[in-house]
Amino acid sequence: MELGSHWRIIKDNISSLLNMEFDTSIFLTEDMFQAILNNLIIDSGWYENVFISFLIINNDWERPLMKIYSSNLEDVFIAIKSIEYYCQESSLGKSG
User: Domain residues of the chain, as ranges?
Assistant: First the structure.
């Protein structure tokens, strides 16, 4: 998974699972992907029966700015890139 140059990827367990040819469900956890840019966090993981990708602003985990549900890993990539695009187009990730 690659994001724009200003994002700092903290964790990426999703990319390595995408090309595995065996049951990856044993590797599914809430903490699968996280990236940070200024006061923004993109966080993705497996929550019971679905992947959820969040956009968190100012560390307010109780009120995510965006929440995207995905049924498979390919859609998680799309969700993460969609959140990144939203941040870019709305100028959320710009400092100063």
Answer: 8-89
